[in-house]
Amino acid sequence: MGRNKKLRLRLESLRGRITDHRIKIALEQQGAHPDRRLIKHWDVEIKAWEQTVSNLERRLKKGKRYD
Known about the structure:
Layout (H helix, E strand, L loop, with lengths): L2 H28 L5 H28 L4
Helix pairs in contact: 1-2
């Protein structure tokens, strides 16, 4: 498997995890007593993954010849 394909698969996986965590946050906030620590934990994970996604996207573009 080529480098770009591995990066694309990793990006797809991270985006899926981000979506799943956003759904979890929305469901938790709808409850009568939302667990703020859990929501904060998911927010921190989402931010870390978004940073990783931006870095991977940059690496993907770097492989192509952009002038």
